[in-house]
Specification:
The chain is an all-alpha fold. The chain contains 16 helices and 2 strands.
Amino acid sequence: MGLFERYLSIWVGLSIVAGVLLGNLFPTIFVTVASLECAHVNLVIALLIWIMIYPMMVQIDFAAVKDVRKSPKGLWLTLVINWLVKPFTMAFLGWLFFNVLFIDWVDPQTATEYIAGMILLGVAPCTAMVFVWSQLTKGDPNYTLVQVSVNDLIMVVAFAPICAFLLGVSDIEVPWETLLSSVFLYVVLPLVAGVFTRRRLEKKGELDSLTQFIAKLKPWSMVGLLMTVVLLFGFQAQTILNEPQNILLIAIPLLIQTYGIFFIAYYAAKRLKLSHKIAAPACMIATSNFFELAVAVAISLFGLHSGAALATVVGVLVEVPVMLSLVAFVNRNRAKFESDISSDEQSTPLSSTE
């Protein structure tokens, strides 16, 4: 594991602090960056997200999808949680907290935007960070690749309709053109670029070419992630310092959602008798969010300084430490998990047999 992954929470934490400080010390710089838009898309954020996502897309081998038949339960678990459970529980928690429990503390327009940001987080299953969580939990890398590949394929066609449906249920006007263009820009294009790049490298007949290329791109992906965090918190710096209570209000339902979804998936994995190397990353994938996409779409739909953008930024703040705590939980309970299912037939991972 590289230096970045090992101390991920520290780098992200430092980036958050840097963003808030710089946003308050040099607000005009961030205002200028925020103004660099084309068709409601911030060009700097778009570039950084591309830098962050593209290396992850190159790693995805869609040819591996056919191998899922060897052990389909882990994939089904992830898909059910990601597309049939998580978006709707997130929308419900957003409505419950901001239209009921917190109704006296947040004005209706801001509450509506917070709910929208939460929905965008809930409908975006994790892509970029999945490989980190899988590695940290000693997950089967081939199976993780299959799960990411299938989720990305579904996200291309399902993200916009589910967002539109849930945003509509929440009485939020949905600009379809902006939503679809965001999916095209942040999912379809990098996905196509990643597949094209991978095929070109594989045609050389040398696996080392692909490995070396990904290794060269990896530092840029780290730079993209950290710079995105700096900018996002810089854009929201004054709001964060002036209204810290709103950060807490947004964080509460996000924490409940994240831990709740994880333990639903963890319990289901036990019931399905999944081997730990499949169950662990399946639970982590089901729990985490593709916050890069959620942030980008929130900015495109509602603006850089909107409540929706702030909610997705708080999602970044919450997710990293929470996911690291869940990694620790999974690793600490590995032996117990395996002993609980040792008497039953276990699922067979793609890379080895149990």
